[in-house]
């Protein structure tokens, strides 16, 4: 942790940690994650694919959105 602080300081990067369990600070990320999960769930349900492929479905939706 000390090395990370030194590295950030050398490059003028201010390293902040969000307050735990405070979703207001991560609003954009939370919306993006929720959208990816909903798209993956829809993909799995519409094609009758079992839930063990959820990670692959999320990766696919992420690829499709980029």
Topology:
Layout: H1 2-10, H2 27-46, H3 54-65
Strand content range = under 5%
Helix content percent band: 55-70%
Structural class by SSE content: mainly alpha
User: Helical element count?
Assistant: 3
Largest sheet: none
- Average pLDDT reading: 86
Radius of gyration: 18 Å
Query: SSE order in H/E notation?
Result: HHH
Low-confidence stretches are: none
What does the overall shape look like? Answer: elongated
Total beta strand runs = 0
**Cα end-to-end separation:** 32 Å
Keywords:
single chain, 66 residues, mainly alpha, 62% helix, elongated
Describe this structure in words.
- The radius of gyration is 18 Å and the shape is elongated.
- With 66 residues, it is an all-alpha fold.
- The protein has a domain at 29-66.
- The longest helix is centred in the middle third of the chain and has 20 residues, at 27-46.
- α2 (27-46) packs across α3 (54-65).
- Helices cover 62% and strands 0% of the residues.
- The mean pLDDT is 86.
- It starts with a helix and ends with a helix.
Give a brief rundown of this model.
The chain is mainly alpha-helical and 66 residues long.
